[in-house]
């Protein structure tokens, strides 16, 4: 009996040890499954957060509404009724599909992901067309760039030609300015020489006039000298008439006719009709003004001189 009990106890002990080992393994697997389940739930929630729930025709629209899931939405594997109890089929099988079940959530997620994939494919098609248009645009741009480079080179050539012409023009302008300055200087010199010539002409004319006057004066002086040297050559008769008498200084002013040959120092007789008045000595002659001045010779004065008395030689 004791042997049997020992065998039974040993068997129970072995079974207990096996059960403990199995429980430890099951617990470890449960923790692993729980960890994986949580990881999957978080992954599904994050994936759903990247799925857009609205389809937009504009591929450039951003920040569209996304599928917002919570951890609680993923906890219901079986369908629940309004009382929160699991719904079963007639045969007692638990219903795992339907609204608010994990299958429903996953199906919605799959649907949104399909829409997202469709939109992604459409975007890829649009991107392809855009790339083709971009390639064409780049090709056109390269061609335009080539044409631009050719035009730029041509512009550079024209600019260089224009600069050369501008430089030539500036040189011509400088030369023209120098020639203009030289012309102005020569014109000024010509004007100065012309003015000098005019001045010289005027001086020449003045000199000629003065020479004529000097010749005439010389002739007059020669004539006067001749008359002084030869008083007998002076014409006889009336030489003038007394106009003014200055008794204080004893001189008279005599009106003489044009061409008078009176000269300074000659003595003339003063007569009133048939009366001998006296004599005067000529002290100054102004032939251009037709008068002469003479001192009264008081030692020969017979009667006072009067205006109107005649002067004789």
Description of the structure:
With 313 residues, the chain is α+β, with helices and mostly antiparallel strands. The chain has a domain at 234-312: Beta Barrel (Elongation Factor Tu (Ef-tu), domain 3), CATH 2.40.30. It is 56% helix and 13% strand. The protein contains two helices and six strands, in the order ααββββββ. It has helices at residues 2-49, 102-229; strands at 238-246, 251-255, 267-272, 275-286, 291-297, 310-312. The protein has a six-stranded antiparallel beta barrel with strand order 1-2-5-4-3-6. A hairpin with a 2-residue loop joins strand 3 (267-272) and strand 4. The longest helix has 128 residues, at 102-229. It is rod-shaped and about 225 Å long. It starts with a helix and ends with a strand.
Q: What is the CATH architecture assignment of the domain at 234-312?
A: Beta Barrel
Structural class of the helix and strand makeup? alpha+beta
Q: Output the radius of gyration.
A: 76 Å
CATH topology name of the domain at 234-312, in short, is Elongation Factor Tu (Ef-tu), domain 3
Would you spell out the secondary-structure blueprint of this structure?
Elements (H helix, E strand, L loop, with lengths): L1 H48 L52 H128 L8 E9 L4 E5 L11 E6 L2 E12 L4 E7 L12 E3 L1
Antiparallel strand pairs: 1-2, 1-6, 2-5, 3-4, 3-6, 4-5
